[in-house]
Design goal:
The chain is of the alpha/beta class. Helix 8 links the parallel strand 5 and strand 6. It is globular and about 60 Å long. The N and C termini lie far apart (about 50 Å).
Amino acid sequence: MQKLSERINRLAESATLAMARMSRELKAEGKDVIALSLGEPDFNTPEFIKDAAKEAITNNYSHYTPVPGLDELRNSIAKKFKRDNKLEFTKDEIVVSTGAKQSLANICLSLLDPGDEVLLPCPYWVSYAEIIKLAEGIPVEISSSVTKNFKVSPKQIENAITDKTRMFMFSSPCNPSGSVYTEDELREIAEIFKKYPNIYIVSDEIYEHINFTDKHFSIGTIDSLKDRVITVNGVSKGFAMTGWRVGFIGAPLWIAKACNKIQGQVTSATCAIAQKATEEAMNADPKIVTNEMKSSFLKRRDLLLEKLNSIKGIKCNIPDGAFYIFPDVSYFFGKSDGDKVIKNADDLCMYLLNSCYVALVSGAPFGNPECVRISYAASENNLLEAAKRIQIQLEKLK
Ligand code: PMP
Ligand code: GLU
């Protein structure tokens, strides 16, 4: 009998990766698909980072490394945390993993017991909820909307806290809304958590360098939370290194040790060559590396926002970071193209994919079922063409 575990049956497929898979399938059939579904920079990894990897191969970095990462890499990450974020970590408080995705899984598996609740301000990145469920925790959504710039208030957070709350997990800049919590807002949120010493905060800062306000603030610098913040980061977004699979955490030693223990049994360390490349990325001035990419993203954001805002029924906030727009599309729910009624954002995404070959992701798995996510990590031509196609198709809905 082919019987899968209940654990895997409970797990949803990653919505971002599912949409990327469907667009690849349509492309293979010869369809002219514009994929704005996957969140990855459309830039190549900078040459100096690639050179470091080539050198690592020549120098025989072909062996297992220590499970939490090479000493020299963790020392570089400690310096980066200090330089960019004013965070103090020793090498042993840093664990390098196979992408920030694994870092998040390590944290949840290390800290959550069955039934523990994790507060997720909406919208949140799709994999948070599923990783929490994999660790037998319970995701608890805190709602938000486009009119609130997709941010939650300290009061909303406090209202969601129960005896079972173990963790608060968020990203700023946020995937998928692009919202950036300011230092003041994070300090106000920290005031709430001061009263609840058993709640741990997971601060996912993977879009740190794609922040158009240029003011990134790390909640882990706030004294009252120092011992309970786990800062997650990686090279996928800021350094255009999605395929290298390197993410990392800075955490209190006992949590870092637990993550190390899990990783030691599941994957060992990440690829030695990718670690050497990451060391080079960490030592570089991030402003120089990411400036060009950031200004392209800003230009594209403005271009796409202008087009989307001219479509009747679409409501956007102005994202301050990352490379996504997360419009409210609920105006179209209940409308039909004469053939099929669009009931929700999932239907709208399938309608756009199948009728005009533009791939977006439904907001439902991000906690905002009235929205869709559009990645603008694509060429200006593709963005303009996609916006045109979207407009034509949406205008057919009556
Ligand atoms: N956090 C957020 C908010 C993300 O958007 C992503 C995207 N992949 C990740 C974590 C994981 O990144 P990676 O595993 O590529 O380091
Ligand atoms: N984080 C990206 C996204 O949100 C990459 C895909 C994934 O890992 O889910 O699309």
